[in-house]
């Protein structure tokens, strides 16, 4: 139980730090909060609603990992290093792919709701 409690505290601390320090995390949390009621309007089934919210939550997960990579890279050096720049770009690309996936899920669900599929 102690391990679970410590993990919970670490999770809260990490999320709180990310919210304080990263605009993208705040925006994605807002999108996640907005996605819950919108998913119930757009989703045709309960499972589709869950999938839509999960797609937005996945973007947040990838953003948190990208933020961790960037913070760690900045801790190593603030000098311009092409290799670190490539690592940061890959993290950014991961967020971009997650956003694209979420967008496609939502577009598919909207088309489904409108009867186009």
TrEMBL record:
Listed under catalytic activity are:
a 1,2-diacyl-sn-glycerol + ATP = a 1,2-diacyl-sn-glycero-3-phosphate + ADP + H(+)
Q: Which UniProt keywords apply?
A: ATP-binding, Cell inner membrane, Cell membrane, Kinase, Lipid biosynthesis, Lipid metabolism, Magnesium, Membrane, Metal-binding, Nucleotide-binding, Phospholipid biosynthesis, Phospholipid metabolism, Transferase, Transmembrane, Transmembrane helix
Asked if the record carries the keyword Transmembrane helix, the reply is: yes
Supply one GO CC term from the record.
Answer: plasma membrane
Write down the membrane topology.
Multi-pass membrane protein
Sequence intervals crossing the membrane = 52-69, 90-111
Q: Where in the cell is it found?
A: Cell inner membrane
Cofactor(s) listed:
Mg(2+)
**Where on this chain does ATP bind?**
22, 70, 88-89
Cross-referenced InterPro entries = DAGK, DAGK_prok, DAGK_sf
Q: Where does a divalent metal cation bind?
A: 22, 70
What the entry lists under Pfam families is as follows:
DAGK_prokar
Q: Which domain of life is it from?
A: Bacteria
Which of the seven top EC classes does this enzyme belong to? Answer: transferase
Instruction: Write out the residues that bind substrate.
Output: 24-28, 63, 92
GO annotations under biological process? phosphatidic acid biosynthetic process
User: Principal localization?
Assistant: membrane
Give the protein's biological function: Catalyzes the ATP-dependent phosphorylation of sn-l,2-diacylglycerol (DAG) to phosphatidic acid. Involved in the recycling of diacylglycerol produced as a by-product during membrane-derived oligosaccharide (MDO) biosynthesis.
Family recorded in the similarity comment: Belongs to the bacterial diacylglycerol kinase family.
Name used for this protein in its record: Diacylglycerol kinase
Source organism per UniProt: Bradyrhizobium australiense
């Amino acid at each position: 139980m102690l391990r679970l409690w410590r993990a919970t505290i670490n999770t809260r601390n990490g999320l709180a730090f990310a919210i304080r320090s990263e605009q993208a995390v705040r925006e994605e949390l807002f999108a996640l909060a907005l996605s819950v009621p919108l998913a119930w309007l757009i989703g045709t089934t309960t499972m589709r609603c869950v999938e839509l919210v999960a797609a937005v939550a996945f973007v947040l997960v990838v953003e948190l990992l990208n933020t961790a990579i960037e913070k760690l890279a900045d801790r190593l050096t603030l000098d311009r290093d092409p290799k670190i720049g490539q690592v940061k770009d890959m993290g950014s690309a991961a967020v971009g792919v997650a956003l694209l996936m979420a967008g496609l899920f939502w577009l598919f669900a909207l088309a489904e709701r409108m009867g186009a599929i």
